[in-house]
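Design request, C-alpha cells follow.
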C-alpha cells in the first residue's frame, strides 16, 4: 500500500517543482553573473574594495568622501556590518582616496569568496541588484537570495540530494529538507518558491548575511 501512496505524492511534488522552476532552467549557467558591482582603488595605498552598484565611495564624487571620520562612520564591511572600513595606512589623516576602476556583473559565489573586500554604506540607497525571499513549500524553511540566482532548482528535481546551495556568510551547505513521504523517506531537496524581487540598501543586505544563500 505504501508503494501506491508514494508515486502520486512524488508526481504532485515533481509537477509543482517543475512548473515553478522552468523559468530558471533556461538561464542556468551554474555561475549566474547577476550582481552589479563596482571596483574601487585607493589612490594613496592601492587597496581595492568593491561596492554593490550604485553605492559610491569615490573621492571626487562628494567632498565628505575624503573625510576620515565620515568614512569610519558610514562605510562598513559587508561581512561584518559592525566593523568600519580599514583606515588608509599611507595617508596622513587615515582617509582613503578612492577612484572607480570598473563596473561589472559578478556571481553570488564570487561575492561570497571576496565578501571581506566588499563595503556597504550605512547611509546608502537601494542597490541595483534586487533580493528575493524564498521558501520551501514542504518544510517551510525560508531565506533570501540575489535576484537571478536559480537556487539550483534543476538539481532539486533529482530528489536524492539537497540543492548545492550555500550560506553567504559561513559558506555552509543548506540543511536538507526534513519533509517525509508517507513511506518515511526524506526528499532532502527543497521545493523552492520565490517571492517578487525587491531593492534593498546594501547595509540591509549585510544584515541578512546569516540567512542569505547562493547556488554554486
Amino acid at each position: 500500500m505504501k508503494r501506491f501512496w508514494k508515486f502520486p505524492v512524488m508526481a504532485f511534488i515533481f509537477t509543482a517543482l517543475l512548473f515553478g522552476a522552468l523559468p530558471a532552467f533556461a538561464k542556468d549557467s551554474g555561475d549566474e553573473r547577476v550582481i552589479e558591482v563596482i571596483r574601487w582603488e585607493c589612490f594613496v595605498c592601492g587597496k581595492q574594495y568593491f561596492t554593490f552598484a550604485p553605492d559610491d565611495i569615490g573621492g571626487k564624487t562628494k567632498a565628505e568622501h575624503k573625510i576620515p571620520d565620515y568614512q569610519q562612520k558610514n562605510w562598513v564591511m559587508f561581512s561584518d556590518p559592525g566593523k568600519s572600513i580599514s583606515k588608509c595606512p599611507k595617508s596622513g589623516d587615515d582617509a582613503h582616496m578612492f577612484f572607480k576602476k570598473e563596473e561589472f556583473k559578478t556571481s553570488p559565489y564570487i561575492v561570497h569568496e571576496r565578501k571581506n573586500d566588499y563595503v556597504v554604506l550605512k547611509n546608502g540607497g537601494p542597490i541595483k541588484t534586487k533580493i528575493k525571499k524564498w521558501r520551501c513549500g514542504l518544510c517551510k524553511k525560508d531565506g533570501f537570495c540575489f535576484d537571478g540566482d536559480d537556487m539550483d532548482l534543476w538539481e532539486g528535481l533529482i530528489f536524492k540530494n539537497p540543492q548545492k546551495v550555500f550560506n553567504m556568510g559561513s559558506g555552509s551547505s543548506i540543511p536538507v529538507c526534513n519533509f517525509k513521504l508517507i513511506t518515511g523517506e526524506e526528499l532532502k531537496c527543497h521545493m523552492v518558491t520565490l517571492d517578487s524581487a525587491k531593492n534593498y540598501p546594501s547595509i540591509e543586505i549585510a544584515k541578512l548575511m546569516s540567512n542569505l544563500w547562493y547556488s554554486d
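Comment from the thread starter after seeing the answer: thanks! Confidence is low (pLDDT under 50) at residues 1-9, 14-30.
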